[in-house]
Amino acid sequence: ETGVTQSPTHLIKTRGQQVTLRCSSQSGHNTVSWYQQALGQGPQFIFQYYREEENGRGNFPPRFSGLQFPNYSSELNVNALELDDSALYLCASSLGVGAGAREQYFGPGTRLTVT
Amino acid sequence: GQSLEQPSEVTAVEGAIVQINCTYQTSGFYGLSWYQQHDGGAPTFLSYNALDGLEETGRFSSFLSRSDSYGYLLLQELQMKDSASYFCAVTGNTGGFKTIFGAGTRLFVKA
After folding, report:
1. Buried-most residue among A86, B25, B70, B98 (CB within 10 A)?
2. What is the rounded distance in angstroms from the CA atom of residue B24 to the CA atom of residue B88?
3. 3-class secondary-structure state, position B81
4. Is a pLDDT exceeding 70 seen at residue A98?
5. Strands B60-65 and A110-114, how do they pair?
6. If interface means Cβ-Cβ distance under 8 Å, which residues of chain A face chain B?
7. Mean pLDDT over each residue of chain A, to the nearest integer
8. A91 to chain B: which residues are within 8 Å by CB?
């Protein structure tokens, strides 16, 4: 059974640029959530996709967008990067939503630095 | 909206028992989860409560009282490797499913 993988591991971008982060869910999982974690803070919920549809979103601006593909892999896109976007981006996969998503399996994260 | 409160830091000695409390506010409550995160690592799932009461998984137990919007994580027979950050997370449905994490409790285990 393959765990959650993310790419790239590290990324350095310039303010105003765009970035795409990728995530492969654990085998059999149909739900993926994306989180932003600043140093010393808890993960902040960005959004969740279930069967290719966004079904929950946190307090992030529209320049944060995502996709989930038929194989349940996922992308997080961030446009017009700002310095405050520098953080660890985590994706987490689970089976089902709501009460069904009792366990989320996290990937190792992508460390994004915006200069 | 959703919010959680948990202590920022707890210190305990090896072999002891420690309890990390969490209070939350949410609508459309589905469940309260606990995650462990070591420095430089990803969060790993520890426990989940959807109904009132105690869930036990080895040295870790978690408790939930939905009427009090309160839960706790109990760690027994503390080991040095338990030194990490512990997050409570509430899943709710407020205009869409969301899992909101607390700011985390840093646990230091001393010899």
Report:
1. B98
2. 9
3. helix
4. no
5. unpaired
6. 33, 35, 41-45, 48, 50, 54-58, 90, 92, 97-99, 101-109
7. 93
8. none
Q: Do B101 and A55 touch (CB under 8 A)?
A: no
| 8 A C-beta contact, residue A18 and residue A7 | no
pLDDT interval class at A27 (50, 70, 90): confident
Tell me how many residue pairs between chain A and chain B have CB atoms under 8 A apart.
67
What pairing do the DSSP bridges indicate for beta strands A87-94 and A31-37? Answer: antiparallel
Taking CA–CA distances from A46, the nearest residue in chain B reads B98
pLDDT tens for A1-25 read: 579 999 999 999 999 999 999 999 9
- Are the CB atoms for B8 and B102 separated by under 8 Å? no
Tell me the one-letter amino acid at A53.
Answer: E
Which residues in chain A are closer than 8 Å to B89, comparing Cβ atoms? Answer: 42
- Other CB atoms within 10 A of residue A93 CB: 27
Q: Do B93 and A98 touch (CB under 8 A)?
A: yes
Question: A54 with A63: CB under 8 angstroms?
Answer: no
Q: What is the pLDDT of residues B55-88, one digit of tens each?
A: 998 999 999 999 999 999 999 999 999 999 999 9
pLDDT at B1: 72
Q: How far apart are alpha carbons A62 and B109 in whole angstroms?
A: 42
Using a CB-CB distance cutoff of 8 angstroms, which residues of chain B are in contact with residue A107?
A: 42
